[in-house]
Amino acid sequence: MRIAVVGARGQLGAAVAEACGAAHETVTFTRADLDTTDDAAVAAAMARVRPNAIVNASAYTNVDGAEDEPVTALKVNALAVRALARAAETHGAALVDVQTGGLSASTSLQTSDFQAAATVPQGASLSAANANGAWSEGVLTAAAAAAVSKTGATQFRIYFQFDDNDDGRPDYVGFYSGDNATAANRPQLVVRYQ
Ligand SMILES: NC(=O)c1ccc[n+]([C@@H]2O[C@H](COP(=O)([O-])OP(=O)(O)OC[C@H]3O[C@@H](n4cnc5c(N)ncnc54)[C@H](OP(=O)(O)O)[C@@H]3O)[C@@H](O)[C@H]2O)c1
């Protein structure tokens, strides 16, 4: 897992960075690396590092000073948190539409698949994979499970909840298909009887 620790020169940040560094790929940002009050810099840094988790240990901690510099205190302790939160949720969850049979006439990929109505839209949302090649998992709603064909083909369409973060960079979500040559790569549909 890749963890970004922001405010890494502070008391908390240094301790968190040390604890995370033992078990995870940890990318640290001191104030010199990243001023959290600079929204664009925050977005760019997180887009570059693409962490699985962000720990924000940056803070305006001079309690008396906050009376003299309320705007700076507000920027660091409130607005910067918003910028970091936004950087963490640029695309939202990966959602799954379920289609009994093919989204278009054929089950092979068609341009019209992207816009076609699905039997059950948003039948599941997937967990964020910890790394490339790691599993994403989701549980189908009852309606989505019912749309899975027991005798023929079923198609799943996976997409980001939010279309774009307008950062001018390409965004990818990639999955192996059910007919991938390596069996271990293929998506799995796990059926649990309760
Ligand atoms: N320490 C504790 O025991 C403890 C316990 C519970 C909760 N907390 C909370 O944890 C947070 C951090 O506390 P702390 O004790 O670690 O404080 P700290 O030692 O004063 O560290 C705060 C860090 O934030 C950095 N910072 C300030 N403004 C910044 C900005 N605009 N951009 C990027 N970094 C900025 C500072 O950078 P510089 O080093 O360059 O000044 C400093 O390294 C606070 O919210 C505090 O309430 C701390």
Largest sheet: 3 strands, parallel
The distinct bound ligands, ions and cofactors come out as:
NADP nicotinamide-adenine-dinucleotide phosphate
Anisotropy-based shape: elongated
**DSSP, total strands:** 6
Helix content: 25-40%
Order of helices and strands: EHEHEHHEEHE
Return the average pLDDT rounded to an integer. 91
Write down the Rg: 22 Å
Distance between the termini: 33 Å
Treating each run of at least 4 consecutive H or I residues as one helix, how many helices? 5
Strand content: 15-25%
Domain unit count: 2
Give the structural class.
alpha/beta
Low-pLDDT parts are none
User: What strand order characterises the main sheet?
Assistant: 2-1-3
Characterise this structure.
It is built from 5 helices and 6 strands; from the N terminus they run E-H-E-H-E-H-H-E-E-H-E. The two termini are 33 Å apart. Helix 1 (11-23) links the parallel strand 1 (2-6) and strand 2. It has 2 domains: 2-88, NAD(P)-binding Rossmann-like Domain (Rossmann fold); 94-185, no CATH class. By secondary structure, it is an alpha/beta fold. 27% of the residues lie in helices and 18% in strands. The radius of gyration is 22 Å and the shape is elongated. The protein has helices at residues 11-23, 39-49, 65-68, 70-88, 142-146, and strands at residues 2-6, 25-29, 53-56, 94-100, 120-126, 154-160. NADP nicotinamide-adenine-dinucleotide phosphate binds at residues 7, 9-13, 31, 35-37, 57-61, 76.
